[in-house]
Amino acid sequence: MAMADLRFSATERDGVYRAIFERRDVRSQFLPGPVPPEVLARLLQAAHHAPSVGFMQPWDFIVIESREVREQIKAQYARENERAAARFSGEQAERYRRLKLEGILDSPLNLCITCDRSRGGPHVLGRNTVLEADLFSACLAVQNLWLAARAEGVGVGWVSILEPVELARVLGLPDTVVPVAYLCLGYVSAFLPQPELALAGWRQRLPLQELVHADVWGQPLPPGPLAQALDAATQGIPSGGKHEQNIKVRPVPGSACA
């Protein structure tokens, strides 16, 4: 029996790869216009369709529009960011302080994705050995939302410089629920052609060839088809899309951000 062709069309594949390569952690390009409810609903639906250990679906979504709540989060960020800055010295410290690492008040909407570690009961299928699998599952919901947001022209920024216990207190989370991702959402003036930290000279993307091992850690791939394909992939997305270094900045149409 012939094998069914389950691939997307070339155009559909290009769209998937484009979302992956053009997704950015947005901090500085937010516009004040709201995200329409129907768009936000699609993003949440995409997040809710992430895979999860034991089909646990441990996530919840806290939609935060309140200025008062966001100001509390921003104050917490400021304290934690100052502590983080103190870990660096010299030129690196100066460079760190120049970075803008959040858009809590700049974005029209904040979203906290949480993980209910008690959901599914005390024994969740597949979580017996790796107890953190529920947290990993919640991260997959974050990625689903992020890629869907890029397809919708919505920017997302993950604010990781927050103290989880204090964040949980501000948001009134139950004891069994932990915050996984605090996100800033909104339409943007542009998606940068490269990650912002790369453009700022903080770090550059590592060569993929150095991160792929053969059979065991530290053993490089032998010369052959996969090694050649990896070399080719670094020149552009395999589906024929554009490499992120060649992506043009695409402003969001004004009608979507009024």
Number of strands: 4
How many whole angstroms does the radius of gyration measure? 20 Å
Shape: globular
Query: Judging by the overall fold, what is the CATH architecture of the domain at 23-191?
Result: 3-Layer(aba) Sandwich
**CATH level-3 fold name of the domain at 23-191:** NADH Oxidase
Determine the strand fraction and express it as a percent band. Answer: 5-15%
Mean pLDDT over the full residue set: 91
What's the CATH class label of the domain at 23-191? Answer: Alpha Beta
By secondary-structure content and strand pairing, the structural class works out as alpha+beta
The number of helical segments is: 8
Helix content: 25-40%
Cα-to-Cα separation, first versus last residue: 54 Å
The run of helices and strands is: HHEHHEHEHEHH
Q: Biggest sheet, open or closed, and with what strands and sense?
A: 4 strands, antiparallel
Strand line-up across the major sheet: 1-2-4-3
Unreliable stretches (pLDDT < 50, length at least 5) are 237-241, 245-258
Q: What do we call the CATH homologous superfamily of the domain at 23-191?
A: NADH Oxidase
